[in-house]
Design goal:
The complex is a heterodimer of chains A (330) and B (267). Chain A is mainly α and 330 residues long. Helices cover 76% and strands 0% of the residues of chain A. Chain A has one domain: ABC transporter involved in vitamin B12 uptake, BtuC, CATH 1.10.3470.10. Chain A is globular, with a radius of gyration of 20 Å. Chain B has a single domain, classed as 3-Layer(aba) Sandwich (Rossmann fold). Chain B is built from ten helices and twelve strands. In chain B, strands 6-7-8-3-9-10 form a six-stranded mixed sheet, sandwiched between helices. Classes of the chains: A mainly alpha (330), B alpha/beta (267). At the A-B interface, α10 and α11 of A face α3 of B.
Chain lengths: 330, 267
């Protein structure tokens, strides 16, 4: 039976938006430096404390917004890949797309290229990993979503090995920073503007493509029969998901399982209509990563934990449960 | 009533689907050679042949999913390739043998998918679309299933949901690839009665079956595929006979008449 929220999706979306605001407020309020949380707002509103103001406006707010944007984008990349593969287990991290972006970005960094080139390299890496996965799984008899997923998992371990090689060959003084970056680390995040704009573009574009995506998730043949331009839609989903993944990887490293966990939970609550799944995933992904980052920088403060490790700790058990529950035919 | 309105839109073309010299080949084997057939408004055409004789491939070719090796398929007087995707999907539908349900969802959602070509871009389904989906569910004996989760249905129920989706699509020409699979006898008959009722309203259907008795009872025309390129097409009274059926199935088939219907028995 549909849940209460499946019947009233707008209430669920409003609720998520409300939680998102609360989480963002919490993320700028709580932290190891500056005034204690309960004293922060009087300080700010009084305007007399430039240190508190700087901590909030220059450090916590950009970081919280970056976390929110990255979380939302990763969840959307997951939705796109799940539709492409018609498999709820697909996610940019599992499929090696994040890995491909990481390898290319790391290589560009080691070569001493500028940030601009690192971005471009990451996009190239993400796209190549996607093309590699789809190309390799296109064996005799066409591809099946399962073969695709398996190929992705293998490519992901391959990129992991390349990353290890690059790290071993690289400058040891940079090693710690790079390892942290690879595990997903928001402490180097700069201005969140670019990612927020990307999120702001992706959500309406995604909603516009949502009904064809609903049809495509019933299979290529069904989609063709119902008049969906299957080829262009698939290419569009490829490029969007690669672009999004690359943009997040270059900013915060590879953070796994957001793209897996969030759409899955959203589908459980709202059903599989992507006109609802897409906005809800963007909000819920943002919330999840903002909370995870808040925990990462406060749990063992002043020591910061890599946020990717925290999301993986949630994601791995859920992935295993999903895999176990998957019907034998898929 | 629906038949009158659609007939007014496309006047003077009674042939809804027409194939000219269509070859159906797979992996270098020519299963059907030079298929010529015309399906008109109000007709139910059955497609019979042994396993692997190319029934599904023929239906997929007629639906435009694969290009014919040679020849041409025309829908409402216009080559299949010249239709826009959406206009074609509003006129031609295919119930495939298998359907995928990768993600959770309700029965009503699954059936509403069939309305896709009728809903404009940027629009949501209207109450009319929901009404069409509910009518399709009722036609498939699925009243009360609207909110059921697809994953909880039996094989036969899922099959009827897939059928309801293609009925909600409401194409003029409906192609059905073994719709009887997984269905109990009551629902097998119901499907064919439904196709007859649609035909009466000016639609047409091609349905692949494995039961020549049902074919003889419900279809106007029959296509027999032998799987070696040979085929025959014509009124069921002529094409469906013991000699032809014995030949294509490789068993001896005899005919009896029960309650006014021709029954074919293989022994």
């Amino acid at each position: 039976m549909p849940t209460y929220f499946a019947r009233h999706p707008s209430i669920f979306l409003l609720l998520l938006a409300l939680i998102a605001c609360l989480v963002l407020v919490a993320a700028v309020t709580v932290g190891s430096a500056g005034p204690a949380a309960k004293d922060l707002w009087p300080h700010l509103i009084g305007g007399a404390d430039p240190v508190a103001r700087s901590i909030v406006m220059d450090l916590r707010l950009p970081r919280a917004l970056t976390a929110f944007a990255v979380g939302g984008l990763l969840a959307l990349a997951g939705v796109a890949m799940q539709v492409l593969l018609r498999n709820p287990l697909a996610d940019p991290y599992v499929l090696g797309v994040s890995g491909g972006a990481s390898v290319a970005a790391l290589a560009a960094m080691l070569a001493g290229l500028s940030a601009y080139w690192i971005q471009g390299a990451a996009f190239g890496g993400a796209l190549s990993a996607t093309l590699l996965v789809f190309g390799l799984s296109h064996g005799p008899g066409g591809w099946t979503p399962n073969r695709l997923l398996l190929t992705g998992v293998v490519v992901a371990s391959g990129t992991g090995a390349l990353v290890s090689l690059l790290l071993a060959a690289g400058d040891p003084t940079l090693l710690r920073g790079m390892v942290y970056w690879l595990m997903g680390d928001l402490s180097w995040a700069g201005s969140p503007l670019g990612l927020l704009v990307l999120l702001g573009i992706t959500v309406p574009v995604g909603i516009a493509m949502a009904r064809p995506m609903n049809v495509l998730s019933r299979g290529d043949v069904q989609a063709q029969l119902l008049g969906v331009p299957v080829g262009p839609l698939r290419v569009g989903l490829f490029i969007c998901s690669s672009l999004i993944t690359a943009a997040t990887v270059t900013t915060v490293g590879s953070i796994g399982f957001i793209g897996l966990v969030v759409p899955h939970l959203v589908r459980l609550v709202l059903g599989s209509d992507h006109r609802r799944v897409i906005p809800a995933s963007a909000l819920a992904g943002g919330i999840l990563l903002t909370v995870a980052d808040l925990l990462a920088r406060t749990l063992l403060a002043p020591q910061q934990l890599p946020v990717g490790a925290l999301t993986a700790l949630v994601g791995v058990p859920l992935f295993l449960v999903l895999l176990r529950r998957a019907p034998p035919s898929t | 009533m629906a038949g009158h309105t659609t007939a007014a839109v496309i006047p003077a073309v009674s042939a809804l689907l027409k194939s000219t010299d269509v070859d159906v080949s797979v992996a270098g084997r020519r299963l059907v050679a030079g298929l010529n057939l015309t399906v008109s408004r109000g007709e139910v055409v059955c497609l019979l042949g042994p396993n692997g004789s190319g029934k599904s491939l023929t239906l997929h070719t007629l639906a435009g999913l694969r290009l014919p090796a040679t020849g041409q398929v025309q829908l409402c007087g216009k080559p299949l390739g010249e239709w826009s995707r959406r206009d074609r999907a509003r006129r031609l539908g295919l119930l495939t043998q298998v359907s995928e349900d990768a993600f959770p969802g309700t029965v009503l959602e699954a059936v509403l998918i069939g309305r896709h070509p009728h809903v404009d871009a940027w629009q949501w389904e209207t109450t009319q679309d929901v009404e069409a989906a509910r009518q399709a569910l009722a036609d498939c004996d699925l009243v009360g299933f609207e909110d059921r989760e697809i994953g909880t249905l039996s094989g036969g129920e899922r099959r009827r949901v897939a059928l309801a989706a293609v009925l909600a699509q409401d194409p003029e020409v409906l192609l059905l690839d073994e719709p009887q699979n997984h269905l109990d006898p009551r629902h097998q008959l119901a499907v064919l009665r439904l196709l007859r009722a649609r035909a009466k309203a000016g639609r047409a259907a091609i349905v692949s079956l494995h039961d020549p008795s049902l074919a003889a009872r419900f279809a106007d025309q029959a296509i027999l595929l032998e799987g070696n390129g040979q085929w025959s097409f014509g009124p069921v009274g002529e094409v469906l006979n013991c000699a032809a059926l014995s030949k294509i199935y490789g068993v001896s088939v005899s005919e009896v008449a029960i309650a006014g219907y021709r029954h074919f028995i293989s022994d």
